[in-house]
């Protein structure tokens, strides 16, 4: 009989032989945080019992272990239930979801917001539901945007990373190529606001100008910005572009210390998504504890002092790493040290880990070949001495592996 299998063992073995192999819990790496860490700044590794400082989490405000956020989740579990039990459109809708969405819309300055079960589901479901004729997408956009574009069936035009001149050129070229059709087509410009592996910030105002000049819509993924800027908003709020960005999307899983995603925009956008976004319609509602935790975290991001502490730690860490000789890219809370070679990145990861700091190497395919890096990210809950410890670990590790 013909063999129609998938040779998975061989494929895994081939990958195992390369430095691109990954495992969920390799013994020489640690989980991002412990459920039992006694001090929020000290996210203890769960696997080997040694104490390490985690400088790589997306839990930027350190709110996953904040009492108030934990209490909100616990209370929602107790009062509302641990799971939504069904799609929001069936019986899964609760006041906890409505409260979260009201707060998101307030912070994002929009008429309405809609919670999804993940940021991935929000991007894929929203882009597919908009079903644009053409999308113009930044070359470094997140995988969930890329997958949303594929699923939407749109013609995809990729422009150079954060390069508005290239975007303008491609918009003009596409308009010239099919002038008749272009007039009736729906066009969508898609960008992350903060690029998670580079710490770069998209030039949103110029992107809006370019899009408006051809009548295109703009959709911005604020996954790595939500909660961190003006009044708990993202870069869209910092730049005052609420009225020019048609679709604001983000996750609840990073600064908002929970799980899930959201889209904020006009009443008609949300109404459309409630009806047409398949990842919303055909998926169980966000769990009430996750919704409650995110809602409380958003409240704290908006009114608390955790944002100030984060930005103070970012300044201290960036200055310290530069002072010991590293070139630190980007201009956000994400501080990438691009090493280049993937073996060097792994060596640096191991050497800082031996000094009590967890900051995993990022390798292809997450980043392009030859640009492997360590993505350092402080949290609001790190103390000044934690940050000093991190800087010293990177200094000593960099010297040991020959990068400084
Ligand atoms: N967009 C961006 C820019 C992200 O970094 C991520 C998560 N890594 C997502 C979307 C997906 O969000 P989630 O993890 O909530 O599915």
Automatic annotation (TrEMBL):
Pfam family, one: Aminotran_1_2
Enzyme class: transferase
Record's catalysed reaction(s): 6-carboxyhexanoyl-[ACP] + L-alanine + H(+) = (8S)-8-amino-7-oxononanoate + holo-[ACP] + CO2
GO biological process: biotin biosynthetic process
Molecular function as annotated in GO: 8-amino-7-oxononanoate synthase activity; pyridoxal phosphate binding
Record carries keyword Transferase: yes
Listed PROSITE patterns: AA_TRANSFER_CLASS_2
Pathway entry: Cofactor biosynthesis; biotin biosynthesis
Domain Aminotransferase class I/classII large, residue spans: 53-394
UniProt cross-references to SUPFAM superfamilies, sorted A to Z: PLP-dependent transferases
EC number: 2.3.1.47
Domain of life: Archaea
Keywords from the UniProt entry: Biotin biosynthesis, Pyridoxal phosphate, Transferase
Keyword Amino-acid biosynthesis among UniProt keywords: no
Cofactor(s) this protein cannot do without: pyridoxal 5'-phosphate
Subunit note: Homodimer.
Family listed: Belongs to the class-II pyridoxal-phosphate-dependent aminotransferase family. BioF subfamily.
Name the UniProt record assigns to this protein: 8-amino-7-oxononanoate synthase
